[in-house]
Every structure is written in C-alpha cells, then in structure tokens.
Amino acid sequence: MTIKKATATAHPNIALIKYWGNIDHELRLPSNGSISMNLGCLETRTTVMFKLEAKSDNLVLNGKAADLDAQKRITVFMNRVRELAGITDHAHIVSENNFPAGVGIASSSSAYAALSLAATKAAGLSLSERELSRLARTGSGSACRSIPEGFTEWITGDTHNKSYAESIAPPDHWNLKDCIAIVSQDHKEIGSTQGHEIAETSPLQASRIASAPERLDICRQSLLERDFKSFAEVVELDCNMMHAVMMTSNPTLLYWEAATLSIIKAVQSWRMDGLQVCYTIDAGPNVHVLCPNDIRAEVAEKLSGIPGVQKVITAGSGGRAQII
Ligand code: PMV
Questions:
Q1: pTM for this structure?
Q2: Has residue 103 got a pLDDT over 80?
Q3: What residues flank ligand 1, with Cβ below 6 Å?
Q4: How many angstroms is it from 125 CA to the middle of ligand 1?
Q5: What is the rounded CA–CA span in Å between residue 213 and residue 222?
C-alpha cells in the first residue's frame, strides 16, 4: 500500500475590493480584479493522503463527513490535481478550521488554498506560488488570494494562466485589525458560486465592473501609503456596489439583517466623530469592521454593545499558505 501524505495551513481572507461575477464560471476567471487581506489568527489546516486502494475521494470537514455537494466539488478539484501530477489515486482529506463553523467567516478561501498546497505536495508536485494560486482559484475564486502573504491582489486575466493573486504588501506592512461582528450564524441559502452566476442579471453589474480598475488603484495606493481616510472610503464604496448588484440580481440576493444596517450606521457615525473605522461585508450578514490595531479593543467593545451583535472575532493580517 502506498500512502502519500502532506499537511498545509492557510488563512481565510477578507476582500477590500470585491470579486463578484465571472467571465468563465468553470475556471472561475473573475469579471474584475480584487484586493484582500489574509486574516492572521484564523486558519484552515488540511491533510491529504493519497491511497492506492481508495475508490473515491473522501472529505472529513471539522470532524464530520462532508455533505454530498462538498464531496462532489472536492472531486472535481482533485481531478485537476491528479491530471497535473499524472496520478490516478484517490485521497482521504481531513480539514479543520480553528474558527467556529457557521459564524459566517468564509472558509472556502482558506479551505481551497490549504487543499491546493497539501494535495499537490502529497501528489509529489512542487508548484510555484503563482501556479498554486491559479490552482486554488479553480476550487474557490477567493482562495487564490489566500496563497500569497499579507495583502494580496488578484489579477483578472482572461485565461487560466493569466489569472492569479500576488502579494502587494507583507502582513506587517500595516497593523490593521478586522473586528468581525457576528449577527447571524445561519447557513446562507444562496452561496457565492450561484451568486457569481447571477451577477450579470443585475443592471448595475456592468458599471460596477467598468469602474473597478479605478477603485483597485485607489485601494492599492491607500494601502501602500497607509492612508486610512481614502482606504475607508473606497472599501465601503466597493462593498456597497457589490451589495447593490446582489440586491438587484434575479433572484434578489439580500444578505443583510437589521443588525447589519445598525452596524453600518454606527461605523459611519464613529468615523464622523474621528475614529478610524470602516466596514465591509461579504456574501452574508456579518460585518467586518477594519481599524488600526491601537483602537481594536475600543471598536470591539462598541460593536458588542450594538443590539443583534452576538459576538466579535478580531483578526490581524496573516502570512502565506504553508506546508507544515
Ligand atoms: O470565492 P467565492 O466564490 O466564495 O467568492 C467570494 C465572494 C466574496 O466573498 C463576496 C467577495 C470576495 O472577493 O471574496
């Protein structure tokens, strides 16, 4: 019996300029570029074991057998790895998050980043960061941004080879914190894979895509210059534009809860009062509130006091996906 085994870790990331919509759904080639920050203390740890005798891939997620849809998605991804490595063995995959399941922190970014690294290593491949980022993208678009370190940018690209993420600043470039205000732990009915597919039904998507390069430039520059004011404005604008597209898609995607709006309004008024805070929201109701490290405790405490906020999880910027 031959067992080829490897373990890797990766951090989830929060998008500062959002990815929403694809020009190629199968390859997950995005309609626009995006920028994100890896979330340091949050982590997925994945072990892949190829087994000669296994008849199919088998995924154990946070201690439980994954559901059929997740297993199917993993098999499509593992077929890609097998093709790259020229092998036919199936794998036993064990994946654990160190953050609680169902708190609305997108785990697909860290999941597919850790899986890309562990699976290719276990298959005997040694891919470059760029090759890994491309591969991770095919599992979950945002996962390509969890391969490089710190603050990363996903270059759009209209082919598989041209579409990958790279680091634009290391984790210690800017000591920002993401205070994640959890307002709901429910599983969302329409996930991002389906969401990307209906993005084009919104009459607003074309103009969101057309103006994305300008927001990417402002975000990249404000990040590099640590200019919080301009960073805050572009991050909120981009978030609002993505949610405007979601709300005007067919079917309508309305991810916000009442508490989501309360937090948005609170963050806006705190900033008017001089506090360096801004919000961003992914495909769910929980709100990511970004601020400099020195005010993180104050921000987390203020968020905890808003009715509807169940808990606040704080994370700083994190490194690259790694073999352990
Ligand atoms: O990687 P996916 O398919 O889960 O899509 C992620 C979509 C957003 O989280 C809403 C935005 C982003 O850029 O991460």
A1: 0.96
A2: no
A3: 15, 18-20, 34, 106, 108, 140-142, 192-193, 282-283
A4: 27
A5: 14
